Amino acid sequence: MFVKKVAVIGAGTMGTDIAYSLAVANIPVVLRDVDENALQRAERRMQDTIHGAVTKGRMSADDAQGRLAQVRFSSRDEDIADVSLAVEAVPERMALKKTVLKELDQIVPPLAILASNTSALSISEMADVTLRPERVAGMHFFYPAHTMKLVEIIAGNKTDREVLETLSQLSEELRKIPVVVKECPGFVVNRVLTASMAAIMRFKAEYHLRPQDIDNVITHRQLAPLGPFVLADRLGLDVVWDVSQTLEKAYGNRFDPGPELRDLVHQHRLGAKTGQGFYSYQNTSSIDGSEPRPLSAEQEEDLIDLFTLAALVEAVRIWEEGIASAQSIDVALRAGAGLPIGPLAMADQLGLDVVYQKIVHLEERWGDGFKPPSSLRDRVEKGQFGRKSGRGYFDY
Q1: Mean pLDDT, to the nearest integer, of 167-175?
Q2: pLDDT bracket for residue 290 (50, 70, 90)
Q3: Which of 343, 340, 338, 352 is nearest to 390 (CA)?
Q4: Could you count the other beta carbons within 10 Å of the beta carbon of residue 278?
Q5: pTM, whole model, 2 decimals?
Q6: Between 178 and which of 128, 171, 195, 363 could a Cys-Cys bridge form, CB atoms 3.0 to 4.6 Å apart?
Q7: Where in the chain are the domains?
Q8: pLDDT band at 346 (very low <50, low <70, confident <90, very high)
Q9: pLDDT-based confidence at 54, cuts 50/70/90?
């Protein structure tokens, strides 16, 4: 199916960035919102983004004007009645998303695709409120959507393969990397990142550490481009809390971030967007004002193991459940989370026997959340240690 025109529903930050990405690819797009003020803010944001691209020499002034001309900012249903695809990018609440998709089902053409930009919620549940569940899928962009390369394409239990192929092709037209995954709470990237982030938040609480001391270890060791607390503040602590609650309900206590995140959300300290979260954006220091307490060498090594192996254990579980292939999981985490190496390739490189013993130790220290996955144990028992033996989660 050829996508001739797209509607993006919701003129918040994500919706605006998605519409911008479409416009830059020369695809006509209608950014629709019921709030005229939100549309005006979105237009100003898009103009600023395009102006920045021109200033940096990434786009000529003439090209910029041509791309902006591809976007229509509208609150009217009739302006989206002829689209090939509608992408909802409203806040992460199931009831709201269902309402939006049910309305879109009545407005857009019968063969148009309905896609949700959800980061964790059930595509099948959303699809069931429409008369076209086979044409409903997830199209999860990552923040900031105009620069991040990954798009998770999520199949609901009734989604047609042709819909997945169309969304994948469109993602490539946007110069992004599509990864098709089956439905599960959190999909691939958010499920892995949230498991790792929750483990680090519990670690911080146990040892009464400052967020910047933990973040510095993560970034200085080049384990990720951002530390977990900087990342959480940028995403919005309310968003991180909502996702962690969804995943804890689905998978259990390994997604429990501990009380501090909940308390910050209740205090409306939601991160960068409110000026305070784990960090204060008035003075760049930790909000609790505590003195630095550098991690001991032992704590630093424990932190590194927690961060990397929580991600690995969750990635292996996703693979065992058949949600995505080993290659897709690693590509998604490199493109969507900026990891220098995918967790499954990392395990193969370190040696699955070595990794297995580390996870056994973490289970003894931190509980069932680190129970070694059965596929990892089986490979070790068969002498499949990864790269050094020629076979692990990948063949060498």
Answers
A1: 97
A2: low
A3: 352
A4: 27
A5: 0.90
A6: 171
A7: 6-182, 188-396
A8: very high
A9: very high
Retrieve residue 394's tokens: 């990948």
**pLDDT band for position 291 (cuts 50, 70, 90):** low
CATH topology of domain 6-182: Rossmann fold (3.40.50)
Per-residue confidence band for 117, with pLDDT thresholds at 50, 70 and 90: very high
Reply yes or no on whether the pLDDT at 186 is more than 60: yes
Q: In what order do the strands lie in the sheet with 29-32?
A: 71-74, 29-32, 6-9, 85-88, 113-116, 136-141, 150-155, 177-182
Rounded (5°) CA angle 256-262-265: 140
Confidence of residue 282 (pLDDT cuts 50, 70, 90): confident
In this predicted structure, what is the pLDDT of residue 143? 85
